[in-house]
Design brief:
By secondary structure, this protein is of the alpha/beta class. It contains 12 helices and 8 strands. It has helices at 13-24, 39-49, 57-63, 76-81, 102-109, 141-152, 165-174, 176-193, 198-218, 223-230, 236-246, 249-270; strands at 6-9, 32-35, 52-54, 66-69, 92-95, 114-119, 129-135, 155-159. Strands 3-2-1-4-5-6-7-8 form an 8-stranded mixed beta sheet, sandwiched between helices. α7 packs across α12 (249-270) and α8 (176-193) crosses α9 (198-218). It starts with 5 loop residues before the first strand and ends with a helix. 34% of the residues are buried.
């Protein structure tokens, strides 16, 4: 990154993660600002990272090259409408709020605003996130690079050609961690039913999930092939996989993810 001034409106978990990630990647604290409606939260963030913080969103918005909107979707309209119309020329807006379309942000902030809409996920809190990014027509190549650098500070990011694909990203990666947590819960409970102590079942499950994900990320073959390599004909794993297939696990996953995508689309309409 060059040296733009980056302001965060909202000082919650995701803003905290992004700020910490950028500082770890040698972005200077002087480049970063943050505001929050809670003086205590703003002060906590400032003390933690040595950055300038406050409670005046309008003042922050006037001073920064990049404005990151890290507030809850339900208050986004109120926050945006309270910002000054005259802001820094060429300012980039990055929204990390689910369900808020670029059209809504342009309506509230000005139709010529350069806006990047993104959907991060909670593993960003551990620097292991993945984000889908979409840029409107006003976003320059340099601003795309800046957006990518900010989100890559807590993981990886992928660009989308169409905004409506954000709903699919929400269904896959935005909501996705909860799917894996549910699977972990079920495996831990099943391990206990098989006689394992809870702590043993938990550690076996969590480290198996961690190892499987690491293998998949670093493998030169896809997940289906990795699965096949674990399944010996007539063996234990094959029996478990056959049981999953009989219970239509693939169909259940597809239906669940469609429900998540449908809800994301509905939220965009409700919050417009």
């Amino acid at each position: 990154m060059t040296a733009p001034t980056i302001g965060f409106i909202g000082a919650g978990n995701m803003a905290t993660s992004l700020i910490g990630g950028m500082l770890a990647r040698n972005v200077k604290a002087e480049q970063l600002l943050a505001s929050d409606h809670s003086p205590e939260q703003a002060e906590k963030l400032g003390s933690q990272f040595g950055i300038r913080t406050g409670t005046d969103n309008a003042l922050l918005a006037r001073d920064c090259d990049i404005l990151v909107l890290a507030v809850k979707p339900q208050v986004m309209q109120t926050v945006c409408r309270a910002l000054p119309v005259e802001r820094k020329p060429g300012q980039l807006i990055i929204s990390i709020a689910a369900g808020i379309s670029c059209a809504s942000l342009e309506h509230w902030l000005g139709e010529h605003s350069a806006i990047v809409r993104c959907m991060p996920n909670t593993p960003s809190l551990r620097g292991q996130g993945v984000s889908g990014l979409y840029a409107n027509a006003q976003v320059s190549d340099t601003q795309r690079q800046q957006s990518e650098a900010i989100l890559n500070a807590v993981g990886i990011s992928l660009w989308l050609e169409r905004e409506e694909l954000i709903d699919a990203v929400t269904a896959v990666s935005g909501s996705g961690p909860a799917y894996f947590f549910l699977m972990m819960e079920a495996m831990i409970a099943a391990g206990q039913q098989l006689g394992l102590p809870k702590e043993t079942a938990e550690r076996l499950t969590l480290y198996t999930a961690l190892g499987a994900a690491d293998m998949a990320v670093h493998s030169d073959v896809d997940a289906a092939e990795l699965r096949r390599r674990v399944c010996s004909p007539g063996g234990t794993t094959e029996q478990a996989i056959n049981s999953f297939v009989r219970d239509d696990l693939p169909g259940a996953v597809a239906r669940a993810m469609q429900a998540a995508a449908d809800r994301a689309a509905a939220m965009s309409q409700e919050l417009a």
